[in-house]
């Protein structure tokens, strides 16, 4: 058994740097998800507009 290693069971208190990092990562993840959803919505709107233009000019 090693005498130099001591394992303490105590809850890790988050410091401000850890909290900031977690919020930053969470924010980045949210932004990526939001951008993907927004891109899909814009593609659908563009397709619908293109269909509407074709319908208007053919009838």
Task: Chart the SSEs and their pairings.
Elements: H1 16-58
Which value, in Å, is the CA radius of gyration?
Answer: 26 Å
Distance between the termini: 87 Å
Please report the total strand number as a whole number.
Answer: 0
Mean pLDDT: 89
Shape: rod-shaped
Helical content (DSSP H or I, runs of 4+): over 70%
Biggest beta-sheet profile: none
How much of the sequence lies in strands comes to under 5%
Helix and strand element order: H
Low-confidence stretches: none
Instruction: Count up the helices.
Output: 1
Protein structure class? mainly alpha
Could you walk me through the main structural features you see in this protein, from its secondary elements to its overall organization?
The protein is mainly α and 59 residues long. It is 73% helix and 0% strand. It is built from 1 helix and no strands. It has one helix at residues 16-58. The longest helix is centred in the middle third of the chain and has 43 residues, at 16-58. The protein is rod-shaped, with a radius of gyration of 26 Å.
Characteristic terms for this protein:
about 60 residues; mainly alpha; 1 helix; rod-shaped
Brief rundown of the structure:
The chain is mainly alpha-helical. Helices cover 73% and strands 0% of the residues.
